[in-house]
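User: For documentation purposes, I need each entry recorded in a consistent format: the amino acid sequence on its own, followed directly by the corresponding structure tokens. There are two entries in this batch. Please keep commentary to a minimum and don't merge the entries.

Assistant: Recorded as requested. Entry 1:
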Amino acid sequence: MRNAISKVTIQTLLTFLYNSLGSDNSVIVLSSCSWPDSQNENALKFFVLADTHILGDYKGHWFDKLRREWQMKKCFQTSVRFFNPDAVFVLGDLFDEGMWSDEKRFKKYTNDFYDIFSANSTPLYAVIGNHDVGFHDQLHPLRLIWFYDAFGMDIIELVVLKRYPFILVNSMAMENDQCIFCSEAVRMITSLNLTLQCAKDGRNGHCYFGNVTEYIKPIVMQLLEILQPRAVFSGHTHHGCRTLHNDGEVQEWTVSSYSWRNKNNPAFLMVTVTDEDVLVNKCQLPRESTKNGLILSILYQIQPGHLLFLNMKTVSAALVLGISFE
């Protein structure tokens, strides 16, 4: 009985420490972030996130879900409140187990996502990832319909914000093997390219794809050479980097995962767009290892005799699974 009570006590203490330290730590860390400098008052400013991996019913442990998704929620809501972006883009793998879900679970994961990433009046645009609907050979029309109903994202989507066109791409439909999804993607890309060329030629009144009113090189959420983008943002790898294409004319930013589950030091991008520039700053979130160290130091003060002989593997298991130290 005492062991059971002790286990519950430790779990409750860990939950309290993670939640309370997460709130304070996120404010401190995010205060060092800033928008890229721009003198243009009409500049478009937006966040780019990727790979949030909301945990599912099969592989997600309740304590892992609680601490890591709480962290994402506090960081995201603090960021939106501090920086007031014009829009937020999330580049795929919103869910961890969407590709295995039935409709009921898909709706549950969608509700979990919106609970964490509630942006109030800020527009949020989600790109489809393989963990959301499956890889190319696992695509099913129903999951694409569920995703469209939840987030308004088709195979190819055009979004125009403050005159600037953004092209959102379902990369699972880019296999070019003439499957029904790939054929539709090619058709939509061709139509979109014609619209952009139409606007470029000054025939704005006769361009029918979306609400493009003038030609500005698009920003692509996945790289497509045919569209000649001015910048590309992509996710999937969980690690951030910058790649130059076309002899340095086009920058591709690969965005880090936003979740501690995938990365000790998650991050997101703060982007400022003007007619002349696409400016990018990387904003780091609190490190999970830093938070673990703070908690272990507090627990050591509470029960020093128990923690003196714990190795890091034991401590890690205790933090992830919520097991008792006794």
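Entry 2:
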Amino acid sequence: MKRLYIFIFLVGLLGNNIMYAQIPASSQSLPSPNVAALGLYGEIPVSKFTGMPDISVPIYEVPVGDFKLPFSLHYHAAGIRPDQHPGWVGMGWNLNTGGVVSRTVKGKPDDCNVKNHTYLMNMGYYFHSETLNTPQWNTQDYLKETAQSHGGADFEPDEFDFNFLDYHGKFMLNSDKTWIVQCDRPVKVDFSGNWMDVPFEKANTAFQYSGYSPSFDGFTLTTEDGTQYIFGKERNAIEYS
């Protein structure tokens, strides 16, 4: 009887199976586990007000002039998701050795600037942000004209997350070329205007590109006491995924 029941159960499962046609795979851009783990501290703040404990283990301090750079282990108690990957010190833990600025791409990368045969395609939001800096930006005629004259351009800013020391937040580029910062403490963001030839996967559009797009070379974040924290600027300080 047990075999009969198992057979009927399997037949029932097979009978309810649904077949689908091929579904095109969506473009995947996943940060490395270490960058993703650091980003959690800004995305889900660790605070007594959230009910999550601040679990940290101090390891070492590096003196830099009058400043001491702490090295510590941190555990984020928001829970472990099924699709979460462990970092370099285990699931839920992260080794904080300075800080990180990570990016979530919206549409195309803000710095997307590639070649289509012999033409330079400045398609990223960074090159078109000021197009929306007009009182007529939401009128139907202006939107139609903009779509026709800037076909394929990206008008959605990327979202940048930062986490260093006691500073956690986000920033993005405004339509007037200034950086909007979301943080509970004063932080100023600057981009030098310099570029770095770091390859990234081509944008998902109808155009065929050749070569690679130059990328932001880094950012300088200035805190309320005037201290500047520089992220990037060197190839070995940038991780691309």
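Summary note for entry 2:
The longest helix spans residues 2-15.
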